[in-house]
# Entry
Amino acid sequence: MPVTDVTTDTENLTMTVTADFAAPVDRVWSAYSDPRQLERFWGPPGWPATFTAWDHTVGGRANYTMNGPRGERSSGTWEFLAIEAPSRFEVIDSFADDEGKPLEDFPATRMTFAFEPTDEGTRMVSTSHFPSVEAIEQLVEMGMVEGLRMSMAQLDTVLQNLRDFAQGKGTEVELLDDTHVRITRLVNGPRELVWRAYNEEDLMRKWMLGPDGWEMTECVIATAPGEKHRTSWAPTGGTEGEAFGFEGEVLLVDAPRRAVTTERMIGTDGPETLNDLNLYEEDGATLITLLIEYPDKETRDMILATGMAEGMEASYARLEQELLTV
# Structure
């Protein structure tokens, strides 16, 4: 995790975040000064940001909206007070309405970002200045500290070439907290085709099969919010195991980048998970990121213990071999 320290000073009304990155200062600066790169990490997992305005000049503004998995929205705006490339910039960060107008009922913070070289790369020190102790307590209660940690953890992917970062690592599972798991897999193919593989029945039946010896017996794909999806599998050719399946509802679709669904095992009352699928393409390769929200730690551990990750890796390998190389 890049964040090495978070210090809250109620006497001086500040919160200081220190993070270390294995990349030179110029590269880290570019990630913070390009809205398309900022969108990949400004916002914790499950709440990606979209920058709708970007005037990177002193006195200019940047407006953004973070989009939650159930359609929630939280908007903000930066007013740039100072820009000293590539070592420092300063903003007023405010909660805002959809047009970027600051909300008066929420505290605004003055934030400084400083970047300095280290032997390993770059150290970033971000200091937030609050108007009152109550403002600090309000934002901490809203999850600001954990949100910053989780957001910064996504920056490593941005700073490296995607293939260098993920090529050959297979399906990786990260336990973000007791109820959230992030699963990533780089596949060698364009995002548009990967999106189709998730959303067209004839393609899904070719790859989403898990380990060898299983077949998909039911495939009902949903492509719009409110629609129901349903998939089932059964063993073939003497393979041991019992037939099973999942069903759920689509909550959000942003083709070809993101889809959020609920999921539960067919024939049961739960537990239900929230599955947030994101696709990002760079240089002809697509990073598949699946953020899963479980109801509790026990359910998380129970499902991971079934060999889910191994089955997903077999499916992703089949996706590359049978669809993306055609």
User: Anything to note?
Assistant: The chain has a mean pLDDT of 93. Residues 3-156 form a domain with the Alpha-D-Glucose-1,6-Bisphosphate; Chain A, domain 4 fold (CATH 3.30.530.20).
